[in-house]
Amino acid sequence: MLVLNCGSQSIKWKLFYPDLNIKKEGHLKILGNKNFEKGLIGELGKIKKLGEEINIIGHRVVHSGGKLKSPLTITSKNLKELEKFNNLAPLHNPFNILGIKFSQSVFPKAKQLAFFDTSFFAELPERAFIYALPEKLQKMYGIRRFGFHGISHEFAASEAAKITDRPVGDLNIITCHLGGGSSIAAIKNGKAIDTSMGFTPMEGLVMMTRGGDIDPGLIFYLNKKVKNLESVLNYESGVKGLCGLSEMLDVLKAVEKGSKKAKLALDIFVYSVQKYIGAYFAVLGKCDLLVFTGSIGAGSKKIVDMICNDLSILKDTKVLQIKDNESLAIAQKIKNL
């Protein structure tokens, strides 16, 4: 089985044997949207040349619009339905769907399955997913907190439970997926009860190019003065907006060289994570495990230490860093089918 994870900046794939051992894998970084289709054709061509008979292809898809559930067997009808949600996750869904379409073309006999980042948060309590907006608007436009990075949060919580040799259903866990996009989830007895991202992946933490929680009044104000505001909020804000750098490794290097802008951007990023951790401690009542995943969360001990050092509430909490592996998580779900 092949697992394909297409994003605006990378194409990742892993070819699994039925026992979940990896036969082959690839990771292509993409510079600019114009290069995506060329890169995708190249990667699928490499897989085709391996000569393996691929029966199932699992795709990570970020936004389901709340109407479609994992796993979804792709048809021409529901693929068109999926395309309607592109504007809700413009950094992700259009590329996820291109991955599906190109896979259908290259591997026409394979069953195509979509696994949604939003599925893990489909059963959030009403008090967590309902926005304080007129009920008529909520029903008319399907407005609710969807949450994202669900595949990663679920996998991190499950792996953390295994490491501590305790059932995930007995634990209170806060998972922090920190990367280009970042989010936090509160997980009680194996079920998500709150998460920082909302109707779109723009809400919540300060991220590398997204500003996270912003006063809605500021959006109205800027919309009268700034062209292409949606693009600015998705691609030019967050850490990049503060110091001009969109890769955390570059930010850390700039901090070491004495850049005040980079130091401030890093401090703001860390502070936003700390605030959500504190909030989710209150929501859960206690926290057995605090788990960091994602390229920053699993890859930078320095940033995890910055987040945790000043949090006295962590004295009875075990802190873990776990490498994210959404491809394996999807492969496990396929095998469980």
Distance between the termini: 13 Å
CATH H-tier superfamily of the largest domain: ATPase, nucleotide binding domain
In the CATH scheme, what's the topology name of the largest domain?
A: Nucleotidyltransferase, domain 5
**Main β sheet profile:** 6 strands, mixed
Architecture of the largest domain, CATH level 2?
2-Layer Sandwich
The radius of gyration is 20 Å
**Helix/strand order:** EEEHEEHHEHHHEEEHHHHHEHHEH
Shape: globular
If strands are numbered along the chain, what order do they take across the biggest sheet? 3-2-1-4-6-5
Number of helices: 14
Structural class: alpha/beta
Helix fraction? 40-55%
Summed up, the domain count is 2
Instruction: Quickly name the level 1 CATH class of the largest domain.
Output: Alpha Beta
